[in-house]
Amino acid sequence: MNAAYLHISLVHIPIVLTPLSVVLLAVAHIRSSHTIARVALGILISAALFAVVAFLLGEGAEEIVEHIPGVIEDNIESHEESSSLSLGLVITSAFIGLLSWLAIAKQFAIERLLLAATFICALLASASLFYTAHLGGMIRHSEISSDPSRS
Questions:
Q1: Count of domains in the chain?
Q2: How far apart are CA 35 and CA 43, in angstroms?
Q3: Which of 100, 121, 95, 107 minimizes the C-alpha distance to 38?
Q4: Which of 49, 51, 94, 118 is most exposed, with the fewest beta carbons within 10 Å of its own?
Q5: Nearest CA to 138 among 55, 74, 68, 64?
């Protein structure tokens, strides 16, 4: 097992968990359920932790794949830049989510506003993660490229 293997394995977790938390936050809102909201927030915080680990493993993964024939450095750089934005959005979502969790626990009036902010930020993070994953796939998966010369 090396950094590339771990990066590819772990990076899928926040890509799945973040949009799952968005769906659960929507369900929590519709049902006015603090229980579902807490589950969604816990999932979102877990997604952020996995995102940090995957991001940190990215540099090691880059060192392994950058010398493989057919790997284009620009694809790696695009993926790396996008991953920084995605990580920032996921961490921000998790931080607002943690504030939401505390607001629910303490029954603060601001809880609905914080949950809405968490939802919006997690939705943006999900979109960013999907795009970052697409760019990551372009590093070694020529079949998803729109450039026919790479197929």
A1: 1
A2: 12
A3: 100
A4: 49
A5: 74
